[in-house]
Design a protein that fits this description.
168 residues; alpha+beta; two-stranded antiparallel sheet; 5 strands; 12% strand; binds fe (ii) ion
Length: 168
């Protein structure tokens, strides 16, 4: 079990965050200026947070029904282009606090959805202006359309396939 401390004392969290830094540095914006500037904001906030050697909280390891699919998702991720991310995530998988997050979770998602945070105002790695985490979906899940008024959000697929608006 890890001791509470700073990021430099928690190499596994640090390596995982470095994977995000690499992704937001080297990935494609698909030619979109909005996505390009979003990606820059993410990596600026992430590097300034990492440079500050932030506090790391010891969060409880919690599981939800969908986390029964996590090992398989990591296996798939480790075979693909996101293998570095999948491997780094596996190293902290016993420390993840999986949660639902919606005030009223659609019943269909109870067994099929959860998310966990890696960095943000609630920890485990403390940061004020950025949240980084993972969402886990069971196979054949429909995630309801939604939007956020006050935040920007981006998703990158680590494992599995998905479609939006019936497009591949
Ligand atoms: Fe969202």
């Amino acid at each position: 079990m890890s001791e509470p401390g700073r990021l430099q004392d928690h190499p596994n969290w640090k390596y995982l965050l470095q994977e995000f830094d690499t992704l937001y540095r080297n990935g494609s914006s698909g030619g979109s200026p909005a996505i390009r500037s979003h990606r820059k904001r993410v990596r600026d906030r992430l590097s300034s947070s990492m440079r500050s050697n932030p506090e790391v909280l010891e969060t409880p390891c919690t599981r939800l029904p969908v986390t029964a699919h996590l090992a398989r998702a990591l296996d798939l991720g480790e075979r693909g282009a996101m293998q570095g991310m999948a491997r780094s995530l596996r190293e902290v998988s016993a420390q993840l606090e999986w949660q639902y997050g919606y005030e009223k979770l659609p019943k269909a998602l109870v067994k099929k959805y959860a998310f966990c945070e890696i960095l943000g105002p609630r920890g485990p790695v403390m940061a004020e202006n950025l949240i980084i985490g993972f969402v886990l979906f069971a196979p054949a899940t429909t995630y309801p359309q939604h939007s956020h008024a006050e935040i920007e959000e981006s998703y990158i697929s680590v494992a599995g396939s998905w479609s939006e608006n019936n497009a591949a």
